[in-house]
Amino acid sequence: MRPEERHHRLLTLARRNGRLEVTDAAADFGVAPETIRRDLAELERRGLVRRTRGGAYPVESAGFETDLAQRVTLHVENKRRIAAQGAKLLGDAETVFVDEGYTPQILAGLLPTDRPLTVVTASLPTAAAVAESPHITVLLLSGRVRARTLASVGSWACSMLAGFVIDLAYLGSNGISRQSGLTTPDPTVADVKAKALEVSRRRIFLGHHGKFGASSFCRFAEISDFETLITDTGLPAAEAHRYALLGPRVLRV
Predict the structure, then answer these.
(1) What is the distance between the alpha carbons of residues 20 and 58, in angstroms, rounded to a whole number?
(2) How far is CA 5 from the centre of its chain?
(3) What is the DSSP letter of 193?
(4) CB under 8 Å to 28, separation ≥6 — which residues?
(5) What is the pTM of this model?
(6) What is the chain's mean pLDDT, rounded?
């Protein structure tokens, strides 16, 4: 098999499964693990995957994005710890924006239910997760619902956000890097995230370590826009320090 064909098949597998293991791929392709590592290094150089110990994750781009069904099965324990830490930083906020995505959805379910709280979100699953609480008022942004993430996007969603002043925004992204800031593949998603960031007094980023160092198509925020970045210990402490030098506190949980 030619290297170009192997690269294509490796990328296809990574995107289908959400992760690629070096040992499994070497056995499937009948090559040495060192060959797969070289292949992944080349795919990472081209910005298509992000390597981790023993494997790689696909980088989401304008032409590729994981759907909600994949997100609820990947990095689940890390996402739960990240969400729990995010909920602890709520403080005295009375209005919060909760972004689309599985980690923010987990966080929404951890918000306090013993005091009045208004939750603004574009995510149908997130709205459903908190709508039954008697003390939580849910404002679901209108617009076109994306089948991939079950979140609304478009000018209607942005127009609704423009009329709010929100205490705290919990935001995620498809990629976060010191060079490109926070990025996402879809321009309409980027518009909603950027508007939520603009109208919020405090901003907290939630994302597992595989997001760091990756860049997607549309930039919607800078690292310095956030008071806190919350991730897991898969992000090396030295790299976390480099992000902290740009302004935010970085928590590894």
Answers:
(1) 8
(2) 30
(3) H
(4) none
(5) 0.84
(6) 93
